[in-house]
Amino acid sequence: MWWFQQGLSVLPVALVVWSAASFVFSYITAIVLHHVDPLVPYISDTGTIPPERCIFGIMLNISAFLGLATVYVRYKQVYALNPDKSKIIKLNKIGLTLGLMSCFGLCIIANFQKCILYYVHVLGACLTFGVGAVYMLVQTVLSYLMQPEVHSKDIFWIRMTVLLWCCSSIVSTVFVPVQVQEELFILIFFFFFPQGYTAHIISTVSEWSLAFSFLSFFLTYIRDFQ
């Protein structure tokens, strides 16, 4: 039996691999068709113009479904392992709610592209990554509360590290200005970043970092799901 065939470990693996592929495939398509600047474009820009918009949308919808399944299995697992611990049960329910909201946000990103309804697209991003970061925090706290009976200290520190990576990426993505028509919070730090293109690169790199830090968190579920 292969390692990904043990238990339900195929769920987080499929979620991470498929989601990463959706970003990469739409990026490659957009580059080949000369729809975006090849030097680190925004992820959303790689899913704006057909045909990459179609690829981006359908693949992210599948990612949202895989995320939904992964979040639910994690919820049931934590509940089964801690049936009598009220604090963990409450946190677990909060985690489930946050996880479902994050998956719904991913559906919004997939179906409301940046060029069509910009603010709805931004709302989806906030739900996916903002609420998703809080979900990661809840799961990290649960990992702390469940040691040493269920989790080791290692898994707690790994999740904490990925959480900090995700949060730092959120900060640098949101608060580094690029162009007034592209980013929501640009004016806040506009005068601190006179080099517009440098700020643009920092912001786009941070967005890609955010996406992959978010996905990396689910890789820590593999051992649990086995």
Automatic annotation (TrEMBL):
Q: List UniProt keywords, sorted A-Z.
A: Membrane, Transmembrane, Transmembrane helix
Q: Name one GO cellular component term.
A: lysosome
At the top level, the lineage of the source is Eukaryota
How is this protein situated with respect to the membrane?
Multi-pass membrane protein
Taxonomic lineage is: Eukaryota, Metazoa, Chordata, Craniata, Vertebrata
Ranges that cross the membrane: 12-35, 55-73, 94-112, 118-144, 156-177, 197-222
Where in or outside the cell?
Endomembrane system
Q: Into which family does the record put it?
A: Belongs to the DRAM/TMEM150 family.
Q: What is this protein called?
A: DRAM2 protein
BP term (GO), one:
photoreceptor cell maintenance
Organism name? Columbina picui (Picui ground-dove)
What InterPro entries is this protein classified in?
CWH43_N, DRAM/TMEM150_Autophagy_Mod
Q: Which residues form the CWH43-like N-terminal domain?
A: 8-226
